[in-house]
């Protein structure tokens, strides 16, 4: 799939490094097929030493060398990067972006390139357990889609959607999702400490409970509501806890928070103001 091709990353930050690690770790490409550009000398030195790849501070060189060019930069860097790479992508190249909130049309117009893929990975991609939602312009070939699946699959699971609007939904649910999970974990750990556990033991209990619950739910194939009912005995401890969580509006708070994240994603990407519940 990548024979005689190079994958070029513009931006060697955390997510860029995660993709490089995944590609090399799964033997999808070799080190000499990867090039990374980054403005920081120490970052380039680190990546070159760790992975044996070629690094540079020149974004134009990176765009010219790669047949697949991945934008793995912060949104605020895009106004500087797009003019640099404009005109340096060939007709048969693929431009892929993992920049949150930046619509495909802005990428295509800014780079003067039609074959563009926009993807929304999440934080667990750093350890190969992420999930990425992605979409593509009509000009993206089946070969390029296969290459995108391989690259994004190196981060964990990937889901293709045929409408870009789903990317804003994914940003709110899975992209920002780890933040919600971490906050829930933090609250559970603090509650354990309040009960009298040491923070170390409370952390261990919460981590394994979260990990085991997720694995059990996935393997059972049952609806999560059914699983919740299984551990909620009438008049029992779980029932008492869930009563107060429902009374406090936990479901509503979570739903409203995710809706707010969705609204913000739309505002950042398109400048639109939408209304919801």
Number of helices: 12
Count of strand segments: 8
Secondary-structure content class:
alpha/beta
In the CATH scheme, the class of the largest domain would be: Alpha Beta
- Give the amount of beta strand, in percent: 5-15%
Task: Return residue spans where pLDDT drops below 50 for at least 5 consecutive residues.
Answer: 271-277
Tell me the CATH superfamily of the largest domain: NAD(P)-binding Rossmann-like Domain
- Overall, the morphology is elongated
Kindly report how far apart the N and C termini lie: 46 Å
Strand ordering within the main sheet: 3-2-1-4-5-6-7-8
User: Mind telling me the C-alpha Rg?
Assistant: 22 Å
Mean pLDDT figure = 94
Elements, N to C (H/E): EHEHEHEHEHEEHEHHHHHH
How many domains?
A: 2
Query: CATH topology of the largest domain, anyone?
Result: Rossmann fold
The helical percent reads: 40-55%
Characteristics:
single chain; 277 residues; Rossmann fold; ProC C-terminal domain-like fold; 2 domains; eight-stranded mixed beta sheet; elongated
